[in-house]
Structures are given as structure tokens and as C-alpha cells.
Design a protein that fits this description.
Mean pLDDT: 93
Radius of gyration: 16 Å
Number of helices: 9
Order of helices and strands: EHEHEHEHEHEHEHEHH
CATH superfamily: Aldolase class I
Low-confidence stretches: none
CATH class: Alpha Beta
Largest sheet: 8 strands, parallel
Strand order of the largest sheet: 1-8-7-6-5-4-3-2
Number of domains: 1
Oligomer: single chain
Length: 225
């Protein structure tokens, strides 16, 4: 099984002090930084893009996980890798050729990930799982931070992890994004996730080191569901 990783979502940080916020979560023990890109088309919101990612790359050595919630993501893969993204997630709902885009991402030198929305079955993603480094499961409807975790996401996590095991693909990481907090991260781990994106669950706390440490304790204490 891949190692467990805590990924603070920069969408929830204080944008007026982004450099300081990144330094704080880095000192607190974050494993990577999750970078949400929204275009106002695939999702009903607009967030941050390439210039901000370039700025973030200059102030941290942590891996940057670019989550492209956008139409036509293939047009921008090279730009995001050149800006500093170490991994790129695109959504299966807007990509016709999942195998092709996974190969493009890897050819650019980044880790390839496919995201699936809460209402999307896992079949298409699992069909190309052997060509992926990670599968991203949305546990909220994408487009806004601060939403509540959708409980049915645990079932989807179990499905994905079981299928990966059946296919001999245990090395593929499973990322969960949406409503992840200290009080639910244990069951989320038990269901099969190993990369935990948390926005307000971390940036809404006073002491980032304390909350990340508490999350790790919950993960360590979890029991398989």
C-alpha cells in the first residue's frame, strides 16, 4: 500500500498571506500541496491559475498537486507542468480519451491522476488504472470549498481500493478531496484512501501542526471498514 499523505488545499488558505500559510503547513508536516484550478465552465466558480502556481513553486519544495476542474484540460497540461506541478488530476467527466491524457501527463514528467465526481461510476477510471499514478475521488460536488463530506464516498473508496487490489495495482494512490477533517479522516483511511486533501479542516484551525498531527493519529488508529 502507498504511504499516507496529508495535502492541505490552498483554496482555503488566506490569500493575502499565501507565502506565510504555505510555510506554516510545510513546517507542520504537510506532505504535498493541493492546488485547485476552476474555470467557471466545468464548475460554477473561478479560482487560481498558472501565475499563482508559479509563485507557489518558488516558495516551497513540497510536491504540488494540480487539480484541474476545467474543460479541455489537455490544452494546459504542458503549461501546468512547466509552472511547477508535480502531479496533475483531470476529470473523467470532461475527457473522452482517458488513456491518451494519462500518457500525455506522464510524458511531460508529471504523475497522472484522473478525478471522478460523486455521481460518476468508477468503471471508466478503472479501465485505465494501470496507466495512472493516482485516482482522485471527489467527496463533495466540485466548485466550492468548505462543503460537507458526502457519506456515500466511503462506498466508492472501498470499491476503488478493492478493484485496484483485484487487478494487482495496489501501488496506485487513492486521493480523497472534499470535507475531510479530523473527525472523519479515520473512516476515510479505513475505506481505502491514502492521500487526504483538506482545506478548511486544516486552514480553519489555529495550530496547523496540532491539527495535522491529530489527523495522522486518527489515520494510525483506524480500522478497515
Amino acid at each position: 500500500m502507498p504511504t499516507d499523505k496529508i495535502a492541505p488545499s490552498l483554496l482555503s488558505c488566506d490569500f493575502t498571506r499565501m507565502g506565510e500559510e504555505i510555510a506554516r503547513v510545510e513546517r507542520a508536516g504537510a506532505d504535498l500541496l493541493h492546488f485547485d484550478v476552476m474555470d467557471g465552465h466545468f464548475v460554477p466558480n473561478i479560482s487560481i491559475g498558472l501565475p499563482v502556481l508559479q509563485a507557489v513553486r518558488r516558495v516551497t519544495r513540497l510536491p504540488l498537486d494540480a487539480h484541474l476542474m476545467i474543460d479541455n484540460p489537455d490544452r494546459y497540461l504542458k503549461d501546468f507542468v512547466q509552472a511547477g506541478a508535480n502531479s496533475i488530476s483531470v476529470h473523467c467527466e470532461v475527457v473522452a480519451d482517458l488513456l491518451g491524457i494519462a500518457r500525455q501527463i506522464r510524458a511531460l514528467g508529471a504523475r497522472a491522476s484522473i478525478g471522478i465526481n460523486p455521481e460518476t461510476p468508477i468503471d471508466r477510471v478503472m479501465a485505465v488504472a494501470a496507466h495512472l499514478d493516482m485516482i482522485l475521488i471527489m467527496s463533495v460536488h466540485p466548485g466550492f470549498g468548505g462543503q460537507e463530506f458526502i457519506p456515500d464516498s466511503l462506498h466508492k473508496l472501498r470499491q476503488v481500493r478493492a478493484e485496484l487490489k483485484r487487478r494487482g495495482l495496489e501501488q496506485v494512490e487513492v486521493e480523497i478531496d472534499g470535507g475531510v477533517k479530523r473527525d472523519n479522516i479515520g473512516p476515510i483511511k479505513a475505506a481505502g484512501a491514502n492521500v487526504f486533501v483538506s482545506g478548511s479542516g486544516i486552514f480553519g484551525a489555529g495550530d496547523y501542526g496540532e491539527i495535522i498531527g491529530a489527523m495522522r493519529a486518527e489515520i494510525a488508529a483506524c480500522h478497515p471498514l
